[in-house]
């Protein structure tokens, strides 16, 4: 009997070898070869697993030139096994010596690897033929050579192969950058089909079918064999084939022929699903729930795929499909819960899933999808009736449990919406004082002295000093004051800071600590690619033998210290750690923790002083207002955040005694209990905002907590959303900047960094204001915020959802299968800021589903595409588009069909070529490409009268051109640009470019590999309004 023992042992040793060499200096050159061998052996193992079962009971005939040739399969398999058995000792020997021999390059380049590659190549054609023969032979038989458990194992191996294929591990044959989006889509479709079969088999057994009918099992085996054959073939194809349209078309046709449920087995499939017997003896309750959940997930995925290409369905059918999709998402939200009370619902949920599976996999539904002529046929109407009946049953089930204890813990999500700013409404910006750029500290001197004393004196052992107090009491402000005190700087060799926040992420905190000294270097970028264990070790080495102070700001859970304490050495040098937390319980649980420093509220005098400083800055308060100001300060009950927020309101209203007294009276109605006072302050501040600023403030909820948001980017988003009023003779960016300064003046938004030529570079909001904005945005039907897979997977998409902000991993976003066709804004942020690891090759679903998008931000996903898909033209309403695609080089001419596009940002490591059709995009205002852009010109561009322009273009970076007459000609096409970055290609020995016609230009950056002084002749003319001119040096490539 043939076994896969040799293959398994070789695989084990290859993986050990790879583990030993990945850390060597030759890893870049030799690891791909080992990975390639591992993946090819895995494909071979999949083949052997099935062929071994076949060889026990079946003859096999290969078709060649119309002649059937009998193959003695056991002999072939023994030959395969013997072939790799002779390499077993060599590979094992290499895995052993790789632990000690540092010359890994010579190890991997020994003859064994070329020989393995050669043998696998020799087997390729015969294995493909055998796969085809086994599938063809089985399709003519009524039984399978495998049990249902063995078939499930076989499907698992194929799914692993597909994952390896799409993840680009077949180095040298299929690289990460070369797998086309089309191939990726077909592989994903195959994965979905196999996953359905894998989930269906245990579900059928759970529903009472102990033995899957032989004909159905045989059909499943054929599906698996065809999928295995196709994936095996793909693993050998070269780069050129992968990008060939005919090749992709062939892959598509082959994939389409692989049908999990076809007309021949559909009746048997329905009989299995309609079984009402329960075989509970086979499973425990938790396993039952997981089986139901797996099938439900698979059905959601299948239905999502059908909805993505539902253009051929009649409207009524599409509506019922969407209702079913929402119903299945509701069932998922129930199945995710673990309460005992919900176990009794498993039987009902199983029956509902059976109904759903019958219609979703109906060959009739698929025929209606594929053939437009059948869209209103009797067949389509039958599908409609089946969908409608299933939806009625799910709704009945839902109505039964709504209001019961079962549903209490099920997450409830709502669409949130606010109307856009009216274009005709009049707006008058508030005339309050400009915000004070630095933090005002009042009443903290005595508190700071107490904390500093604890830090610099006392025990030589490591000690944690917790600063505890309610939200908004000034814990972070006190910690900053202490951290920057001169005595602290003198006494501690190392000072580090991190903000933990409620959404704690271990890696993010470690990166903050290691990079918090403020000296950005290439090392900081390299740290992002390391895992948590390596970062823990680096932190330990950094702190070892030093007296250090580390601040953990905004700690919500003791888990952060339990995870990280191993990295804090106690060298008896008097090192200290500060925790700021709202929770006294966290402080009590801390190991090495001293007595908590409980931050007191401000006294009435201190409150009064802080209020006046925030309202009037260095100016004096009018005597007539002092009494009322003291009354208002008392109402804030010593809470700094409440004082700051109230001051923000006072700074914007008229400084009149009657107005202030009226405000003081209203303040008494909103401030209730001490626990609610901060929330009430925020509500008060929000209600005092002009209508146009409310939407702008709530939009901050779309970003990550504690995120430092780029002001320019925020302003562009506000404009794209329609929040900013269009005022004749005034740029929208100027109006939006006034909005931002107004919010800052009200102390609702804080300045993080300022620009060198004035204005705000980055800003943020306090975490309490952030939470308030999230809640208010939800209540006002303005914005839905989803964080993590639990929220994503159980989110029931409501109709007319306006805006959706997602903060999760890219994998979770794709896996969640969201379907919101009416969505206007989609913002995606990776869970770990600055660390983009998820790579996506197929974004066709975006163009199929989200046709009404105005704002699309996918910076949290790295699109593995060289060219933006031409299907982007389907997003006709798009105003804002921001993508991360590190290998993208080309933008298709069809982008010009996005006639409303205002902002286009592309984060690519390569220079991007823009089509000449871009000159037709008259509304375009901002174009940013990280590594630069080249803009193509049409043939008649030399004639000045024929020049078409981008009259509204406001910012452009970085434009690659020669500073000569041709470059000058191109610049004349952007007459109203305000901010411009140019990279001089330096192909001419002279520089002669007149930019004086760019009368609106305020900021100009000129880069070049060739220093201007080294040119024979340099003649540059600049406009009179230029405020900033920089010539940063570039090193040669």
Question: Secondary-structure blueprint of this entry?
Answer:
Elements: H1 5-21, H2 27-55, E1 60-64, E2 67-71, H3 73-97, H4 104-108, H5 112-139, H6 148-166, H7 181-206, H8 214-234, H9 239-242, H10 245-257, H11 263-273, H12 285-308, H13 315-335, H14 346-360, H15 363-370, H16 378-401, H17 445-456, E3 463-468, H18 475-483, H19 486-491, E4 494-499, H20 506-514, H21 522-527, H22 532-543, E5 548-553, H23 559-564, E6 576-581, H24 584-589, E7 597-598, H25 604-616, H26 623-635, H27 640-650, H28 657-670, H29 677-687, H30 691-698, E8 709-710, H31 711-721, H32 732-745, E9 750-754, E10 760-764, H33 767-779, E11 784-787, H34 788-794, E12 803-808, H35 810-815, E13 825-830, E14 839-840, H36 844-849, E15 855-863, E16 880-884, E17 903-907, E18 912-914, E19 926-935, E20 955-961, H37 965-971, E21 979-984, E22 990-994, E23 1003-1008, E24 1017-1021, E25 1028-1030
How many extended strands? 25
Mean pLDDT, rounded to whole units?
Answer: 80
Kindly estimate the percentage of residues that lie in beta strands according to DSSP.
Answer: 5-15%
The termini sit apart by 60 Å
Parts with pLDDT < 50 across at least 5 consecutive residues: 169-179, 405-438, 669-675
- Tally of separate helices: 37
């Amino acid at each position: 009997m043939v076994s896969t023992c040799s293959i398994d042992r070789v695989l084990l040793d290859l993986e050990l070898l790879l583990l030993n060499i990945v850390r060597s200096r030759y890893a870049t050159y030799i690891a791909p070869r080992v990975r390639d061998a591992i993946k090819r052996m895995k494909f071979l193992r999949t083949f052997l697993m099935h062929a071994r079962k076949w060889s026990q009971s079946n003859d096999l005939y290969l078709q060649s030139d119309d002649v059937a040739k009998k193959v003695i399969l056991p002999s072939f398999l023994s030959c395969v096994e013997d072939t790799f058995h002779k390499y077993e000792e060599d590979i094992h020997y290499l895995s052993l010596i790789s632990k000690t021999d540092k010359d890994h390059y010579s190890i991997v380049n020994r003859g064994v690897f070329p020989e393995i590659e050669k043998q696998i190549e020799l087997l390729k054609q015969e294995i493909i033929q055998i796969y085809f023969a086994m599938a063809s032979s089985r399709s003519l038989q009524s039984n399978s050579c495998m049990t249902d458990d063995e078939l499930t194992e076989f499907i698992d191996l194929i799914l692993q192969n597909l994952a390896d294929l799409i993840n680009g591990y077949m180095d040298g044959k299929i690289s990460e950058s070369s797998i086309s989006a089309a191939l990726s889509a077909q592989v994903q479709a195959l994965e979905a089909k196999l996953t359905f079969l894998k989930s269906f088999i245990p579900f059928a057994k759970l529903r009472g079918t102990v033995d899957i009918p032989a004909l159905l099992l045989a059909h499943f085996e054929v599906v698996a064999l065809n999928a295995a054959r196709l994936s095996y073939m793909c693993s050998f194809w070269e780069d050129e084939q992968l990008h060939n349209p005919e090749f992709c078309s062939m892959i598509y046709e082959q994939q389409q022929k692989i049908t999990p449920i076809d007309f021949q087995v559909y009746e048997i499939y329905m009989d299995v699903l309609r079984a009402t017997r329960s075989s509970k003896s086979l499973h425990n309750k938790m396993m039952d729930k997981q089986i139901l959940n797996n099938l439900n997930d698979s059905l959601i995925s299948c239905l999502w795929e059908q909805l993505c290409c539902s253009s051929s369905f009649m409207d009524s059918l599409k509506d019922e499909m969407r209702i079913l999709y929402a119903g299945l998402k509701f069932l998922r939200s129930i199945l995710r819960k673990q309460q005992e009370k919900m176990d009794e619902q498993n039987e009902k949920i199983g029956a509902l899933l059976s109904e759903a599976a019958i219609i979703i996999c109906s060959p009739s539904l698929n025929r209606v999808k594929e053939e437009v002529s059948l869209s209103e046929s009797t067949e389509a109407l039958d599908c409609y009736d089946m969908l409608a009946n299933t939806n009625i049953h799910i709704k009945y089930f839902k109505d039964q449990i709504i209001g019961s204890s079962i549903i209490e813990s099920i997450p409830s999500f709502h669409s949130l919406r606010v109307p856009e700013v009216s274009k005709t409404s009049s707006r008058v910006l508030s005339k309050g004082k400009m915000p004070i750029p630095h933090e005002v500290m009042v009443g903290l001197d005595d508190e700071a002295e107490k904390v500093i004393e604890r830090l610099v004196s006392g025990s030589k052992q490591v000690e944690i000093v917790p600063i505890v107090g309610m939200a908004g009491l000034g814990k972070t402000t006190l910690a900053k004051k202490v951290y920057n005190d001169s005595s602290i700087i003198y006494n501690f060799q190392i000072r580090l800071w991190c903000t933990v926040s409620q959404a704690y992420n271990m890696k993010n905190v470690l990166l903050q600590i290691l990079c918090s000294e403020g000296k950005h270097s290439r090392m900081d970028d390299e740290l992002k690619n390391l895992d948590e264990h390596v970062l823990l070790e680096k932190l330990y080495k950094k702190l070892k033998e030093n007296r250090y102070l580390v601040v953990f700001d905004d700690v919500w859970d003791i888990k952060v210290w339990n995870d990280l304490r191993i990295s804090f050495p106690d060298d008896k040098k008097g090192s200290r750690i500060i925790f700021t937390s709202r929770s006294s319980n966290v402080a009590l649980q801390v190991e090495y923790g001293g007595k908590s420093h409980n931050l007191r509220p401000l006294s009435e005098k201190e409150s009064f002083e802080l209020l006046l400083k925030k309202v009037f800055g260095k100016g004096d308060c009018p005597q007539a207002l002092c009494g009322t100001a003291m009354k208002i300060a008392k109402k804030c009950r010593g809470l700094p955040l409440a004082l700051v927020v109230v001051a923000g309101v006072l700074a914007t209203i008229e400084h009149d005694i009657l107005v202030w007294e009226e405000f003081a009276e209203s303040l008494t109605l909103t401030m209730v209990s001490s626990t609610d006072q901060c929330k009430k302050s925020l509500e008060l501040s929000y209600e005092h905002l002009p209508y146009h600023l409310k939407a702008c403030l709530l939009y901050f909820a779309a970003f990550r907590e504690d995120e430092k948001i780029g002001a320019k980017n925020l302003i562009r988003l506000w404009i794209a959303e329609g929040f900013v009023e269009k005022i004749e003779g005034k740029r929208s960016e100027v109006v939006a900047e006034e909005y931002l300064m107004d919010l800052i003046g009200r102390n609702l938004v804080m300045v993080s960094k300022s620009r060198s030529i004035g204005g705000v570079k980055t800003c943020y909001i306090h975490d309490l204001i952030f939470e308030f904005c999230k809640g208010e945005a939800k209540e006002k039907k303005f914005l839905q915020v989803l964080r993590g897979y639990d929220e994503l997977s159980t989110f029931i998409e409501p109709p007319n959802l306006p805006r959706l902000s997602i903060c999760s991993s890219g994998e979770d976003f794709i896996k969640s299968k969201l379907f919101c066709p009416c969505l206007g804004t989609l913002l995606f942020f990776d869970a770990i800021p600055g660390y983009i690891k998820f790579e996506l090759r197929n974004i066709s679903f975006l163009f199929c589903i989200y046709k009404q998008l105005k704002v699309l931000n996918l910076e949290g996903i790295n699109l593995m595409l060289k060219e933006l898909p031409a299907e982007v033209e389907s997003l006709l309403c798009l105003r804002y588009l921001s993508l991360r695609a590190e290998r993208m080089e080309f933008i298709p001419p069809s982008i010009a069909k996005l006639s409303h596009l205002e902002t286009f940002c592309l984060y690519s490591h390569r220079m991007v070529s823009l089509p000449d059709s871009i000159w037709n995009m008259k509304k375009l205002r901002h174009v940013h490409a990280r590594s630069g852009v080249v803009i193509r010109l049409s043939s008649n561009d030399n004639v000045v009268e024929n020049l078409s322009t981008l009259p509204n273009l406001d910012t452009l970076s970085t434009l690659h051109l020669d500073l000569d007459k041709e470059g000058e000609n191109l610049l004349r096409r952007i007459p109203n640009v305000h901010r411009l970055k140019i990279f001089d290609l330096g192909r001419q020995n002279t520089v002669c470019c007149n930019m004086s016609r760019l009368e609106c230009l305020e900021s100009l950056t000129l880069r070049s590999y060739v220093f201007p002084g080294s040119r024979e002749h340099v003649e540059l003319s600049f406009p009179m309004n230029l405020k900033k001119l920089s010539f940063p040096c570039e090193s040669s490539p």
